[in-house]
């Protein structure tokens, strides 16, 4: 009976014909009063796994969400569907907060979104004692991991809520959790009596491209020129200064670009995010401060001009693209300097030594993804314990990379590092191997070393590539205490002694690496689709909401293709539930059949 109610809500409230993937299994499990961890890729419908049980079970569901912007988007979208939902956060005035609490305690709300800090406040805990929630939903549950890139200490204390209501089912959800993080979530959110649902990590609609940095602006511009006109995109940079400079440069190139970073005041950040949501800003240039709170479904590309710290961070940030399931592209530039900068940041942090060591290992894994000759998607998924066949939709599949036996060359490189005392960087070592005498070599006596000039067969650029890949493969590491000099690792000796063979990739030339074909159009646009977009934008402006909370692009495409002629036919369009049908059905029917209406002249003649 409960599953039947869930299916009715899925169709009538959310406007979908059937469940996808693991949704039905998760919802049945939660409706039976059981705990669960759900790991599903972005865009696969995780939110429905708690929103539908919230509308079936009695009481109000408490949703723990880490970011105000994310709460706001979800609440706005639910209210558009006719669902009684609200959020308690610092953007509300005391009177507004009191009104939300009154609605909650009077039983008028079905979902209440709160930040973990708010949920743990004495006032909230006191009020929670007097009510029985339908469900606890913990969104972005990877924030509980002390080893992760988005750790929130407050997540560790959420057990206080669960101890007050041990009989209430708990549902933890995330798109980013490797096997270790999954175990942490289960342990720290007391989910061991429940089930773990793994929906995989693959985002088949995303095309992955990673290029060695040659000429950053030209490479970025070539990528952007491949994107659809007026497409929404996010560009990530490591520093605030670079964010500002990049946003200014993009504006000069004709893009509607705005910066977003923690150095801007809160009002400016909110304004820029708002403009991005309603498409007044085309490109958001941001640091990682612009992260999980992005719920915009029609982001067509994400570009990293600097490497993030880990594969988890990369997956989380690229996950902002293509949430609507339509073809989208992610693109990253990298170089050895990126890892040096990130290592400096790690060393300067106040993290314990064990966490710093783990961060170094995670960075090495990301370097491995950058340097692989295999399918990018395979390497990415294997990191999370998942698997796939070669995807045919990443740069190494579309443009296979040549590899070569670099064992002897690597031995020369390692010998140079060892004989110079493991104190020098790539530039010095490359010159030494190529026999380019510079004053310091005379001073240091290195011109007399056996390794001086033994590497003339490679260019300076090629030696840089060898050293970069030796770092990525873990045969060398950057010694930050030694001013960025290269030093041995535990793996170095075996390779140096010839006990191990090494294949390295040949770097593509900048011109060749930029020649990837543009994605096929998301779908064929048409005058009718553009008219429906204009209608949606007008309605969104009237209500002060982002256009996508009215209808996603995929819904408008289906309207344009099927051209429903009645409300009953409109009801069968994916994403059109009963509430939206009542609010917008007639308006969109008129827009669809505007060309069918007789002109004034036709009326006169008849």
Task: Briefly summarize what is shown.
The chain is of the alpha/beta class and 606 residues long.
What report would you give on this structure?
The radius of gyration is 27 Å and the shape is globular. Mean pLDDT is 90; it is low at 599-606. α1 packs across α3, α18 (407-419) crosses α19 and α19 (426-433) packs across α21 (460-472). Helix content is 45%, strand content 13%. By secondary structure, the chain is of the alpha/beta class. β15 and β16 form a beta hairpin. The protein folds into four domains: 2-198, Rossmann fold (3-Layer(aba) Sandwich), CATH 3.40.50.300; 206-398, P-loop containing nucleotide triphosphate hydrolases (Rossmann fold, 3-Layer(aba) Sandwich); 403-507, Orthogonal Bundle (Arc Repressor Mutant, subunit A), CATH 1.10.10; 527-601, HRDC domain (DNA polymerase, domain 1, Orthogonal Bundle), CATH 1.10.150. The strands form four sheets. Strands 3-4-2-5-6-1-7 form a seven-stranded parallel sheet, with helices on both faces. The chain has a six-stranded parallel sheet with strand order 8-13-12-9-11-10, sandwiched between helices. Strands 14-17 form a two-stranded antiparallel ribbon.
């Amino acid at each position: 009976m409960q599953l039947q109610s869930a299916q009715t809500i899925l169709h009538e409230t959310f406007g979908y014909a059937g469940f996808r993937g693991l949704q039905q299994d998760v919802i049945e499990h939660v409706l039976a009063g059981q705990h669960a961890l759900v790991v599903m890729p972005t865009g696969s419908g995780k939110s429905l796994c708690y929103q539908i049980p919230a509308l079936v079970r009695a009481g109000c569901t408490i949703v723990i969400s880490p970011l105000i912007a994310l709460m706001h988007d979800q609440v706005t979208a639910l209210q558009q569907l006719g669902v009684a939902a609200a959020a308690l956060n610092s953007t509300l005035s005391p009177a507004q907060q009191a009104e939300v609490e009154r609605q909650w305690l009077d039983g008028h709300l079905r979902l209440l979104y709160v930040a973990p800090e708010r949920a743990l406040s004495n006032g909230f805990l006191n009020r929670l004692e007097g009510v029985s929630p339908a469900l606890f939903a913990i969104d972005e549950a990877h924030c509980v991991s002390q080893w992760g890139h988005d750790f929130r200490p407050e997540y560790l204390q959420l057990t206080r809520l669960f101890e007050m209501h041990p009989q209430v089912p708990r549902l933890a959800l995330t798109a980013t959790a490797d096997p270790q993080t999954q175990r942490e979530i289960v342990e720290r959110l007391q989910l061991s009596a429940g089930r773990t649902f793994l929906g995989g990590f693959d985002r088949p609609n995303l095309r992955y491209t990673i290029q060695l940095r040659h000429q950053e602006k030209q490479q970025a511009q070539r990528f952007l020129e491949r994107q659809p006109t007026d497409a929404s995109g996010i560009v990530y940079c490591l520093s605030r200064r670079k964010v500002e400079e990049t946003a200014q440069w993009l504006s000069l190139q004709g893009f509607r670009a705005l910066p977003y970073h923690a150095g801007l005041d809160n009002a400016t950040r909110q304004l820029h995010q708002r403009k991005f949501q309603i498409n007044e800003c085309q490109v958001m240039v941001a640091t990682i401060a612009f992260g999980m709170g992005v719920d915009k479904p029609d982001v067509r590309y994400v570009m990293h001009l600097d490497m993030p710290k880990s594969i988890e961070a990369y997956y989380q940030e690229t996950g902002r693209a293509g949430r609507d399931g339509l073809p989208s592209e992610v693109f990253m530039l990298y170089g050895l300097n990126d890892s040096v900068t990130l290592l400096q940041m790690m060393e300067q942090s106040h993290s314990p030594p064990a966490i710093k060591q783990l961060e170094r290992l995670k960075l090495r894994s990301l370097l491995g993804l950058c340097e692989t000759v295999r399918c990018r998607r395979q390497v990415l998924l294997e990191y999370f314990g998942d698997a796939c066949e070669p995807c045919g939709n990443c740069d190494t599949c579309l443009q296979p990379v040549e590899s070569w036996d670099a064992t002897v060359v690597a031995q020369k490189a390692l010998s140079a590092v060892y004989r110079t005392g493991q104190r020098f960087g790539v530039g010095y070592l490359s010159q030494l191997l190529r026999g380019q005498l510079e004053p310091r070599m005379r001073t240091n006596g290195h011109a007399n070393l056996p390794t001086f000039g033994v590497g003339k067969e490679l260019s300076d650029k090629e030696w840089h590539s060898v050293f970069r890949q030796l770092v990525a493969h873990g045969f060398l590491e950057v010694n930050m205490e030694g001013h960025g000099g290269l030093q041995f690792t535990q793996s170095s000796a075996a390779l140096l002694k010839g006990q191990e063979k090494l294949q390295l990739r040949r770097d593509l030339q900048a011109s060749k690496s930029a020649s990837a074909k543009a994605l096929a159009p998301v779908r064929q646009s048409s005058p009718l689709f553009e008219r429906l977009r204009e209608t949606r934008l007008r309605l969104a402006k009237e209500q002060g909401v982002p256009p996508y909370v009215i209808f996603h692009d995929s819904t408008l495409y289906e309207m344009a293709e099927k051209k429903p002629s009645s409300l009953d036919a409109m009801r069968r369009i994916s994403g059109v539930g009963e509430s939206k049908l009542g609010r917008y059905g007639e308006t969109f029917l008129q827009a669809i059949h505007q060309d069918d209406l007789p002109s004034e002249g036709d009326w006169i003649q008849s």
